[in-house]
Amino acid sequence: MSRVFVSQEIVDEALEEFEGTGITVDLRRDHTPLPAAELRAAASTYDGLICLLTDRIDAEFLAACPRLRVVANVAVGYDNIDVPAATRAGVAVTNTPGVLTDATADLAFALLLATARRIPEGDAFLRAGRYTHWRVNQEQMGVDVHGATLGLFGLGQIGRAVARRARGFDMTVLYHDVQRLPAEDERELGVTYAEFDELLARSDFVSVHAPLLDSTRHRFDAAAFAAMKPTAMLINTARGPIVDEAALAAALREGMIAGAGLDVFEREPEVDALLLELRERVVLLPHLGSATGTTRREMCRMAARSVRDVLTGKRPENLVNTELADRLVAGP
Ligand code: GLV
Q1: Domain containing 113 — which CATH number?
Q2: Domain D-isomer specific 2-hydroxyacid dehydrogenase NAD-binding, which positions (predicted)?
């Protein structure tokens, strides 16, 4: 009978997905990631793995787990997994798209608003007992979000959900993506395609919604910040390494751009010390994109369903390495 290892604490309710299948699940009741060698040792005899984005699944890990047939990442991004190596090893990789789209778009918008209107600064000011009277030139003077131009770098499901929210704020929405939408979809969504440089030059807010790939790593570097408006703000809820964090800190300090709202970091959970020093118009969050109870529960359930499906001879709903699809389906 198949056995599944869960590398870190998840929402227990998700394990209901295995009921009646005879699959045994061993849940590691700890919310810290295991060091690589310990993860290899712990998972080495299992057929299925449910893991988190803080677990690195590379060729060495796969070689140590010869029985493994499926790795389900409880995240939409899967840059922590060497997918070509998994495909070579015949291991199905799945992620959790869709169920976290709206929660992540909500958070991106919250971060944009918090940065533009300096909400954490206002909160800290009040709690410090410094709010003595209302004044015209308020300390936390912000910039308008309504009517501003938003540039979306990446227009997948989350980028589109952010575009829909931006319409409610009467924003002009530009996007840049490797794939341009058909004109009709652009019209319906109310977005206009822009080359990367144009997106940078015209946007008041640039929000990152692309996956981390070789082609997107450090796409936001010193040259990109130099091309942005000095009043512009960068919002990142995607993956930290898409932004060169040291270059961002320098750009903020030198006034090349005006602010940043970041939910992800280049060497997460570490944050560039220079960024931590910047308190005005810089909002830093601990990777909260999908952090609502409902969303995290659905992500865990989806990951559990994927593992169950592969181990019972079905194609999972969210297979990443689709090359393996035919091999996953049990014969008659
Ligand atoms: C979170 O960052 C995710 O990829 O789901």
Answers
A1: 3.40.50.720
A2: 109-289
Helix (H) or strand (E) holding 98, with range, is none
Q: What is the pLDDT of residue 331?
A: 64
Q: Are 17 and 31 contacting, i.e. CB atoms less than 8 angstroms apart? A: no
Catalytic residue, chosen from 9, 186, 198, 268, is 268
Task: Tell me the pLDDT tens digit for each residue of 192-234.
Answer: 999 999 999 999 999 999 999 999 999 999 999 999 999 999 9
Q: What is the pLDDT of residue 330?
A: 73
pLDDT tens figures, 152-169:
999 999 999 999 999 999
Domain extent, residue 272, equals 101-284
User: Which candidate, 210, 142, 213, 143, places its Cα nearest to that of 177?
Assistant: 210
Distance 63 CA to ligand 1 centre (A): 26
Pocket test of ligand 1: the residue of 73, 81, 94, 104 to mutate, having most ligand atoms within 8 Å of its CB, is 104
Last residue of a domain, one of 284, 305, 322: 284
- Which of 229, 165, 173, 166 has its CA nearest to residue 197? 229
**Catalytic-residue membership of 268:** yes
> Do 117 and 209 fall within a single domain?
yes
Residue with CA nearest ligand 1 atom 3: 75
Tokens 């004044």 locate to: 135
Q: In this structure, are 213 and 276 located in the same domain?
A: yes
Same domain, yes or no: 61 and 35: yes
Number of domains in the chain: 2
Instruction: Spell out which residues line ligand 1, taking CB within 6 angstroms.
Output: 53, 75-77, 100, 289-290
